[in-house]
Amino acid sequence: MSIPLSVLDLLPIPSGSDAPTALQDALKLVQDVEQLGYKRYWVAEHHNMLGLASSVPLAVLAAASQVTSRIRLGSGGVMLPNHSPLSVAEGYKLLSALAPHRVDLGLGRAPGTDGRTARALRGVNPEQPFERELAELIAFGTGNYPAGHPFAGILAAPVGEGLFPPLWILSSSGYGAEVAAYIGAGLAFAWHINPDTAMARAAADSYRAAFRPSPDFSEPRVMVAANVVCAPTQQEAEELALPLGLMFLRLRLGEVGQFPSVAEAKAYPYTEQERAVAEAAIRRAIVGDPQQVAARLKQLAHDTAADELILSTLLHDPAARQESYRLVMDAVAQL
């Protein structure tokens, strides 16, 4: 199996720990996965979630740029409705100056949080369509404005050749595929959120059929995201995955807190309905020993026609998380 693997990090803050420690763990992780051969390290944007330290991906990526030298760094993604397009263009061009030729700008149109927090993020700015925000972002980043544009002449600083990074559009349905094809961007399908393999394949096929080449992408490029928990044995992996179910249950209940431990997940007094919610969340992940995980990833890549897979591993123990990524890479390399 020669398909490239990448990492999507949500920066879990384990119960009993804190944000500074989680950030240091993230910097260790990005160094580890760079050495293991992962192609990209992306950081997701989430808000009002006390168990995750990924509220400002740009800050994490700037720090990661100083402790790595090869791995590509990117947002997975910037939730564009939460931000000014000009500020996004400036921030990621500056990141490109810190890490030349290895920055990706992944963009999504979801808020990455609940509706109330989204309103707080956006302040008094009126909402505008994602397509308009995207067009403004590209114009600010490249200087290519349509005739008569009111912001013509404004350039996102710093200015320099190759600083505006390649764009990726995040999608959990067919809409993002249409946008990515139209602007000649990469497509990142969120199978870890919507594990509908048929929909992922349909999005990939429609994207490839409608793709218009761009300076950054001469050909279409599809990346598929998956939640993965890998351990030496299936039993160990299933145990490590238990907190994932509790985390999603708490999100469903509107509760916020740090990422739970295995002991907390085992001790939680689930109702029958709550247990069903938690178990369903775990079933959306690929959980198992190295051979099982590698086989399922190979099948996922085949079924979705992915060019690349990006893996998110949420575990309470940072060492177990790093070990999961190592086991996966070693197993996939042997296929």
Automatic annotation (TrEMBL):
Organism classification, top ranks?
Answer: Bacteria, Thermotogati, Deinococcota, Deinococci, Deinococcales
By its UniProt entry, which Gene3D superfamilies does this protein fall under? Luciferase-like domain (3.20.20.30)
> What family is reported?
To bacterial alkanal monooxygenase alpha and beta chains.
Matching entries from Pfam families are given as: Bac_luciferase (PF00296)
The record ties this protein, via CDD domains, to: Flavin_utilizing_monoxygenases
Q: This protein is called what?
A: Luciferase-like domain-containing protein
Instruction: Give the Luciferase-like domain ranges.
Output: 9-307
InterPro entries per the record?
Bact_Lucif_Oxidored, CmoO-like, Luciferase-like_dom, Luciferase-like_sf
